[in-house]
Structures are given as C-alpha cells and as structure tokens.
Amino acid sequence: MVDAVETNANTMSETPSGFKVIWRELRHDKVAMISLVIAATLLIGITVWGSLLNQDKVTEASLLDRFLAPGQDGHILGADPSGRDVWNYLMLGGRNSILIGVSVTLITEFIGLIVGTICGYFGGILDNVVMRIVDFFMIIPTTLVIILLVKITTHYNAVTLVLIISAFGWMGTTRLMRSLIFSQASRDYIAASKTSGTSNFTIMWRELIPNISSMIITDLTLGIAGNIGLEVGLSYLGFGLPPDTPSLGTMIAYANDPDIITAYPWVWLPASLLIMVLALSISFFGNAIRRAADARQRT
C-alpha cells in the first residue's frame, strides 16, 4: 500500500506542467520556431528602430529626391513620390501599425477575458443579457462602422483609432472565453473549491483562468496578426491613421497608381512584403501554440 502511494506521488511529481508540455511540442516544430524567431525579430526590431526616428524629419518631403532608386544618395530602399526615404518611412510606419495592433489586442483581450469569465462562471440572467448584446454587435459589419466613426470623428489620432477598433473587437474574445470558462466551471475541482468555501473571485482568477492560459496566449498571438492587418487595411482605404502619420497601409496604397506599381515597385513592395511575412510568421506560431495546447489537453 505504501509502495503504491509512493508510486502515485512520484508519478504526480514527474507530470510536466502545461507550459512544459506546450514548449516540448513547440521545440519539435521547426516551422513554429522559425516563425517565432522571425516574428520576434521583426516586432522588436521595427518597434525599437522606429522609436529612434524623428517623425517630422522622416515625413518631410524632398522634391529633388522623388522616385530615387534604391541605393542612390543614401536611400537604402529608394525614395517615394514625395522624396521621403522608403526605409525610414517603412520603419516608422511599421512601428505605428505594430503598436496599434498590439494595443488593440491587449485591450480587447483584457475586456473579453473579464466579461467572458464572469458570464461563463455565473451564467443565468447576466450571461443571457450580455451574450445577447454581444450577438447583436457581432452581426453588425464592424469594419463599416469603424470607417463611419473615423469619418465623423474630428481631429482623431492613433489613440482614437485604437479605442474605436477596441470598442468592437472584444466581442469574439468574450464568446471564446465564456465558452472555455463554462466548460471548466462544471468540473469536479471547481465543485470541490466551492465546497471548501473558496470565494468566487479566487476560483475565477486563481483556478479557472490559469487552466485556460494556453488558449489565452493563442488568442493573443493570433489577435496581434489580425489587428495589425485590420489597421493596415483601414489605412490602405484611407480610414486608418491620419494622412500625416506613417503606416504600412499608406505605403501599400501607392500601388493603386498604375505607373508606380510597374515603374517604381520599391515604393510599395517593401511594405507589402513586410506585412505578409509578419502576418504569416505570427499566424504559423499561433497555430502551433494551438496544436500544442491540444496536446496538453490530451496529456
């Protein structure tokens, strides 16, 4: 009997934690690790480099440098139609797009996690009311609503854009977190905690949320890629950042000119390649985390 207890204790002590299981799965996925390195390098490098630049100097027009080819007069990637250095503009625009995407993701994840956890744990009338509100807003074409709000908002800036996008971005996260919490709340360990007198707050934030941490990380990772793409798309259409604020979308918008798209590809191609590589690397890594989280559940 003692040997059996010792064996069970040793087995429990040797059982790897959730993050160890996920890391073990990711280590053997070469595509995921390469994607992680690429995404981290781009996100950190562009953010730091862009923060060191002077926006007024980068956005200053120079008619004498219009459409200079890459390598001429110190322009690594050439110059755009206004004579601005494409490399510096790319770094500054990339930083703005990344910061907006990350900011929106953090805000929407925080709101969605709190609202979804409360609704999934308590249920009842509160859950029904909140979910009906969420369902109503999710059927609305949010992109068109965001464009409308941007048009009617005077003197808007990057902070205003983040708040507008975040106001509609938390709905999907709320539904996901609510379903995860709802499935966890009916398990035996939650019933045992309630029986022992543990407060609802402690159960939610110390027991439920840690058990869905892998899905939170997955949703965060994929959300960053999606929100960066949303900002780039809005700026491409002319409803994102103000015209005087650099963005990857405004650089890609140069491709609307038939002459530029064929004769001066260095004006729009670097931004297109950057957003493509960044979105793909984040998505590949996010999907790898999701697969690793499924492996953790199986373990």
Automatic annotation (TrEMBL):
<feature type="transmembrane region" description="Helical">
    <location>
        <begin position="98"/>
        <end position="122"/>
    </location>
</feature>
<comment type="similarity">
    <text>Belongs to the binding-protein-dependent transport system permease family.</text>
</comment>
<keyword id="KW-1133">Transmembrane helix</keyword>
<keyword id="KW-0813">Transport</keyword>
<dbReference type="Pfam" id="PF00528">
    <property type="entry name" value="BPD_transp_1"/>
</dbReference>
<feature type="transmembrane region" description="Helical">
    <location>
        <begin position="156"/>
        <end position="177"/>
    </location>
</feature>
<keyword id="KW-0812">Transmembrane</keyword>
<feature type="transmembrane region" description="Helical">
    <location>
        <begin position="31"/>
        <end position="52"/>
    </location>
</feature>
<protein>
    <submittedName>
        <fullName>ABC transporter permease</fullName>
    </submittedName>
</protein>
<feature type="transmembrane region" description="Helical">
    <location>
        <begin position="216"/>
        <end position="239"/>
    </location>
</feature>
<dbReference type="InterPro" id="IPR050366">
    <property type="entry name" value="BP-dependent_transpt_permease"/>
</dbReference>
<keyword id="KW-0472">Membrane</keyword>
<feature type="transmembrane region" description="Helical">
    <location>
        <begin position="266"/>
        <end position="289"/>
    </location>
</feature>
<feature type="domain" description="ABC transmembrane type-1">
    <location>
        <begin position="94"/>
        <end position="286"/>
    </location>
</feature>
<keyword id="KW-1003">Cell membrane</keyword>
<feature type="transmembrane region" description="Helical">
    <location>
        <begin position="129"/>
        <end position="150"/>
    </location>
</feature>
<dbReference type="InterPro" id="IPR000515">
    <property type="entry name" value="MetI-like"/>
</dbReference>
<dbReference type="InterPro" id="IPR035906">
    <property type="entry name" value="MetI-like_sf"/>
</dbReference>
